Every structure is written in structure tokens, then in C-alpha cells.
Amino acid sequence: MLAGFYVVALVQLGGAVALVIWLSTVLSSLIALKIAFPLFVATVGAVSVALWKAIRAKPEPAPGLTVGPDQAPELWRTVHELATVVGTRVPNEIRLVPEVNAAVSEDTKLLGLISGRRILYIGMPLLQAMRVDQIRSVLAHELGHYSGRHTRLGAVAYRGRLAMGGTISRIGPRNPVGWVFRGYSRLYLLVDNAASRRQELEADRSSVQVAGRAAAASALRELPVLDAAWDFYFQRYVHPGWQAGFVPDDLFGGFNELIVARQAELDEMRGAEPEGGGSRWDTHPPIAERIGIIATAPDTAGASDDRPARVLLPDIAALGRRLQQVVVDAGDRTMLPWPEFTAAMVAAGVQRQADAVFRALGRFTGTPDPGLPAVLELVQSGRLGEFAEQFFPNATRREAAGKFAEPMESLLQSAAVASGAARWQHSWSEPARFVGRNGQPMPLAEIAELAVAPQTLPEAVARLTAIGIDPAAGKVVQRRADASGARLLAALANIKVDGVDHDLLMLNRGLVFVGNPGKADKGTKRLRELVESAPIAELASRHQFMPFEELATATVHKQVPLKAELVLHDGRRLTLQEAWSSELLEKNSRDTLLEALKSFGSAD
């Protein structure tokens, strides 16, 4: 299939030459050359550059912590034993990696004819959460790829994908040469992925051979459970703190604590049947299909071993901390133990919510230094409902004032933390709790209900004072919204902002205007390279960022191509004009942007 890719290139090259010869018989040679030359250049240039880069490219080993026989003797002894059973030589290196996965690689030579250095990758979460018999099944599966010689052509397939991807990226979307290459590349991937699925089923036989059908099937069932737990762990416990400028001092130890504390939830997930289905584009067969095939395989009287897989490492906690040092670049983030990390993470999130309210308060009152005292003054003067309408547009002023109890609780929480009267208490089994100095929950929701009505405001202030909360401590920290933690929703190339060419990124928190974008005919490629070049928050800090909270109204004058006028709270106006030559990162990018703008106004 890889050789066929270059045959296709030669055929197209020959077609371009034939086209020149034929056209020269009916047109002048110069005109014929002008017509066929772009096809010739596109084919030769794109294939040559992509092939040269692919030949020089080499798959880089996944980052991780290499453990030798002296550091993990039991793990190496197990790998030696399994390699003998499945009939292959032992890998040269075992590397612990930060993912719910295991894999193998081999640095072969002469298109796979000569075997090379082998690396076995083992995900730290698997060793933390699986049983010994399950991890033996997983390792036997990976070693089965070696015995089946599945890794011999890994480098060739890698370079093939690079060559095809590089060729296609260098040919414009409207060039007919690119159509043929894209069609062939899809065929290549279909064949490659089908071979990969077959190899996975072959490697599963090694799992059954070593661990027996029950352990092999349970290991497959465990993978999606651990994958979901890993995602939950990062989304709930790690990412918010990372975005706030903190990092836990024991990243992998935290995951171990989580799975121990939430065994009941994990057991419930284990009871669910794995999803079936699948696609011809998948590199792995569906787990349900693999389990069904395993059930029909000859069983092995493999002794079950329900010990935790962590016993294969002498000190898994210490290795986890070393792995974190290798794979985590904390930059200038503050490293904290888990209790302090969670307290700082949640407090930062609550402060962000409070800051959004305080910034709105500054726009509403013109107060240069908005804070909780100014909010309480609005309550006392009977103007809270007028201010709260912007947060609850479908409510009356009186209703809005009552509904403001929820954001008021966040304001009180931020003031309590700043006063040193309360903190967020870490827990692996439930959300963090807001507790006072005595470790008991602080009932700020009740006080917030009292604080939104003029007649009960004095009682609220008295109760705050009694538990050590100073309302003056509730202040704005971030005076202008940024894109920390923002998500990319849409992107459009070739948009004029006040008549000047820009690319536009739409985040869930605002718009990013990228000046001096480049050539108009490479918009989609440019957008893709841009969003892959750095985290979204960093891109917003490099370019002009307009938070949605600063947008007062938006009027859409025309939908295709988009033409709109934006009016900011400070009176500034911006015009957006999409060119007919604009390009989209995704097909729905324009519709997504239109829906957002219409929420601030109406179409003409």
C-alpha cells in the first residue's frame, strides 16, 4: 500500500506530462504548459518534500520513567516469564508512562527485516488499579505483538502516514491532484487499521494463553472503567488547580487515593456491559467483540492472582513521584500537598466567580474598586434587583434580587477565605466541603438568603461578624477577564475587524482576534496550526481578547458572509466582516458564532 502511494504519484506525473503533449497539439505550447504545469509542480513538489521528511522521521519514544531490573525486579521477572510463554525475547527497556494504556515499540532496520531495540510501555494507572492476573494478561497481550512480529513494520507504517499526510497538506483543497491522493490515503488507512484490528485479536490469544479466559476478559472490562476514572480524576481534581497556577506534589498518588475511596462507584461501572459497535476506521475491535472471541478460545489453567498489581513494584509511591518529575513540566506553578492544593484550587474558582460579579458591579456603578461592601450598599438602597437583572434576564427585578442569593454565597465564600475564617476541605469520596476554623460546615447559604433583602441585611452582617468574616475582605482580584480554562468553540479565517484582516477564534468566554493572519487561501490550515501551537489561554494572551462579559450588544446585519456590529459596555464599537474567501476550522464554525452574537442582540 505504501509503494502504491508512490505509484499513484508517478501515474499523476505521467498524466500531467501526457496532458501537456496533448494540449500542445491543439493549443500553443506556452498555453499547454501553463495549464499542466501547476499539476506537475503540485505532484512532484508535494511528494518529494513529504517523502524526504518521512524518510528522515523517526517515531519518538513516549515520555516516561525507565525502570531497570534493579529498580523493579519483580516486574522484570514477570516480563521474563511471560516472554518465555508467548515465545519472544524480552524487551530491552520497560518504561512507566502516565496513561491508562500499555504498548510496545521496536526500532527495526531494513524495513523490518532486522529486529531492533524493544520498549515495553506500562501505564502507571494500570499498576495502581489492576490485579496481578489482570496486568499479566495486559503484558502478555503486548508481548504477543512481538511474537506475532506486529512491531516489525511499525516504523514503516509511521513513515507512510507521515508521507501521505505531508503530501496532502501541501496540495490545496481545490487542486484535483489532491483529490486522488486523499482518496488513496483513505484506502491506505482502511487497510492499515484492518491489519491493526486483526493483530489485536491475535495478541489477545497470548493473554488467554498466559492468564486464562477469565483474567483476560476482566482485564479488557477494566480498561474503560479505569479510563473513565482517570478522566474524572483530571477533570475534577487536577485541571482546575493546574489552570489556577497550582500543581499537586503527588499526582499519581492522588489517583491511587481516588480509586480506593470510590470503589463502590467503580464496581457499579464494572457491572455495565461494554459498548459494542465499532467502525472500519478503528484500530482496535470493540471490547465486547474481543471478549466474545476470548470466551470461545481454549482456556488455560492459569492460576488467578487477586493481589494488587502494585506489588510488582517495590515502592510504587516513590516511582510515581519520580514519574511526575519526568513527565510534568510545572513551570512557575506552585506545588502543594493535596489538602492545600484542593483548598487553593476551589478558592481560586470561587474567586473567579466573585470577580465576574465585581466587574459587573464596577460597570453598573462606576466604582473603580468594586467589592462586597458595594454590593451590600446596593441591597440596603433597594437597587440589588436592578443590578441583578443582567444575571437573570427572564426575571422581574424583585425575582432577580431573590435569585441573587446564589452568587451572593460565592461572594461571601471569597470574603470568608480572604478573612481566614474558612477553607475548602479536601475529600476523595465527595466534593470539597466549605468548613470554618472548627472543621464544621459553614452555613453561608442561609446568610446569603438574608443578605439579599434590605430588611434582613443587618442580621446577615451581624452573623458574618460573629463567625469572623469581614465583608471588606471581599474584593475584586482579577480586574479584567482572561481566557484561563476557556474552550475553543469555533474558528474562522479571513475576517475583517474594523476593516483590518484577522483570523477569529471563538471561545466559551470571548473572542480572540489574531492580526496579520497570512495568505487568504490557506485559512483552514493556518487555523489548525494556530490552535495546535499553544494552549487556548496562551493564544488569547498573545492576541487581542474580548471577553463576552464586556460585550453589551451585537447586531448581525448579514449572516453569509457574516457582517455584524459589536458594542461594548465602555462604548467602543467593532465591525466584523467575513470575506467571501473565508475558511472555517469546522463546518459549523459560522453557525456557532452567529448563535453567540444573536444572544446579545438581533439580526437585521
UniProtKB/TrEMBL annotation:
<keyword id="KW-0472">Membrane</keyword>
<dbReference type="Pfam" id="PF01435">
    <property type="entry name" value="Peptidase_M48"/>
</dbReference>
<keyword id="KW-0645">Protease</keyword>
<feature type="domain" description="Peptidase M48">
    <location>
        <begin position="111"/>
        <end position="292"/>
    </location>
</feature>
<feature type="transmembrane region" description="Helical">
    <location>
        <begin position="35"/>
        <end position="55"/>
    </location>
</feature>
<keyword id="KW-0812">Transmembrane</keyword>
<keyword id="KW-1003">Cell membrane</keyword>
<dbReference type="InterPro" id="IPR050083">
    <property type="entry name" value="HtpX_protease"/>
</dbReference>
<protein>
    <submittedName>
        <fullName>M48 family metalloprotease</fullName>
    </submittedName>
</protein>
<dbReference type="InterPro" id="IPR001915">
    <property type="entry name" value="Peptidase_M48"/>
</dbReference>
<keyword id="KW-0862">Zinc</keyword>
<feature type="transmembrane region" description="Helical">
    <location>
        <begin position="6"/>
        <end position="23"/>
    </location>
</feature>
<keyword id="KW-1133">Transmembrane helix</keyword>
<dbReference type="GO" id="GO:0008237">
    <property type="term" value="F:metallopeptidase activity"/>
</dbReference>
<keyword id="KW-0378">Hydrolase</keyword>
<keyword id="KW-0479">Metal-binding</keyword>
<keyword id="KW-0482">Metalloprotease</keyword>
